[in-house]
Amino acid sequence: MKKKITFTLLLAALISTMAVAQVTSLRGDQEIGANNEVPNIKTVPKNQDRFALNYVNQPPMVPHAVDGYQVNQSNNACLQCHDVDVYRKTGAPRISPTHFMDRDNKVLTEVSARRYFCLQCHVPQVQTDVLVENEFVPAGKFGQ
């Protein structure tokens, strides 16, 4: 029995070593210290046109800089322009009605806690080079 357990552990170690050997990184075959250049951080323009959506129910990207915006348990700077009561005055898009529903689809008077932290889904948009090549094609009429 002891030999069987030892053999199983050795076999598992061998298989895991083989699996790790096949992993490649985005750096390719470079050593970790070979290229330590940090790419420049892209600046987000203060205001820009919105990007087209690529698929149904995609969270819209933020077309302006959000540096210094506080979004924490006691304050959400996004709601100062996008909340239901103020969006007409500011000209900003209104927050979606789905953000006022709990997980049981019960309509709430305030933004749901699960939708309160906007930057989890809505990210600032910036035009950059593609980091990883892909073959993604927007669905239907999206992305036009």
Q: What this model shows, in words?
A:
The chain is an all-alpha fold. Helix content is 19%, strand content 3%. Strand 1 and strand 2 (75-76) form a beta hairpin. It is extended, with a radius of gyration of 24 Å. The model has no long low-confidence stretch (mean pLDDT 81). Pfam families: NapB (PF03892).
What labels would you give this structure?
144 residues; signal; electron transport; two-stranded antiparallel ribbon; extended; Periplasmic nitrate reductase, electron transfer subunit; iron; mainly alpha
CATH architecture of one domain, please? Orthogonal Bundle
User: If helices are DSSP runs of H or I spanning 4 or more residues, what is the number of helices?
Assistant: 3
Query: How many runs of DSSP E, i.e. beta strands?
Result: 2
CATH class of one domain: Mainly Alpha
**Major sheet characteristics:** 2 strands, antiparallel
The overall average pLDDT, rounded, is: 81
Strand content is under 5%
Poorly predicted tracts of residues: none
Strand order, largest beta sheet: 1-2
Order of helices and strands: HEEHH
**Secondary structure: helix percent:** 10-25%
By CATH, the superfamily of one domain comes out as Flavocytochrome C3, Chain A
* Rg over CA atoms: 24 Å
Global structural class: mainly alpha
Question: What is the CA–CA distance across the termini?
Answer: 65 Å
In CATH terms, what is the fold-level topology of one domain? Answer: Flavocytochrome C3, Chain A, domain 2
Global geometry: extended
